[in-house]
Amino acid sequence: MKKTALIEKVATALFEAESTGTEVDKFTAAYSELDAELGYQISERLIEIKCETGQTRIVGRKLGLTSEAKMKQMNVDEPCYGTLLANMACTENEPISLANLIHPKIEPEIAFIFNRSLEGSHITVPQVLEAASYIAPALEIIDSRYRHFSFTLPDVIADNASSSRYIIGDQFFKPTEFNLALMGMVFKKNGKIVSTGTGAAVMGHPARAIAWLANKLSQSGKTIQAGDVVLSGALAGAIDIQPNDHVSVSFDGIGSVSASFC
Ligand code: 0L1
Ligand code: MG
C-alpha cells in the first residue's frame, strides 16, 4: 500500500476506534512497513483529524515509555511521545466519565508548563528547567485503542501514545526549586497505597525526558511552545480504573492531585 494511503487508513481507523470505544488489532501485524517514523506521521494525521472538527486544539505533549521497565518490556531504548489536546483535560472537582473509554488505566506524573519555547536539537536538562515556568502533580489516563493493550512501538506511537485524559493539580511550583530526581511520590487507589517512587524513575530525571522530547520534535521541525503542558512520564506502573474508584498522587513538596470516576 502507498505510504499516504496507509497513513490515512490507520489514522482513520484509530479515530473511529476511539470515537466508538471499540478495540482494534495492532496494524504492524498486517503492515510490516509500519515503523516508528511512519507511526509518528500517522499520529500527526490522527491529531489533524481530531482538530479538523474545530472542537479541540493542541495544548501540549506527553512522554511515554520513560521507565527502564517499560523500555525493556517493549524492547526499545528510547521513549515515545504523543500530543495533548484541550478536550483531554479534566479537573479534580468533577467525576470523570469512563463511559466512552475502552480499558482505561491511570498513572502518576509530573506536569511541566512552559512560558517560553524550547528550540534546538541539543536541548539540555538545565535548559528545560529554565524554560519551564511551573511544575505540578498530574495523573494521566491512558487508554490504548489496541485489543488487550497489545502493540509494538510503531503501533503505540500511531495511537498517540495511548493518550486519553489528564488531570493537573491546581498548585504550581518553580521546577528549579526542587531536585526532581529525588522527589518522592505516593500513588493511592481507594485509600490504599499501590506504589511509591521518585522522579528518577523517569529516565533518571523528569526534565531529561523533556529534553529528549524537545530534541526529538526538532527532527520534524516542531518545538515545545510557550504555553504548552508536557506530561513528563509515569513514575510508577499504570493501574486499571473503574467507575467509583478514587485515585490520588502526592509528591514531596509540590502537593497532590486526585481524580474520581463515574
Ligand atoms: O504514557 C505512557 O507511558 C503510555 C505510553 C504508551 C504505552 C502504554 O500504553 O502502556
Ligand atoms: Mg503517561
TrEMBL record:
All copies of domain Fumarylacetoacetase-like C-terminal, residue ranges: 73-258
Q: Which is an annotated GO molecular function term of this record?
A: 4-oxalocrotonate decarboxylase activity
Its EC top class is: lyase
State which Enzyme Commission number(s) the record gives.
4.1.1.77
UniProt entry keywords in alphabetical sequence: Lyase
What is the protein named? Answer: 2-oxo-3-hexenedioate decarboxylase
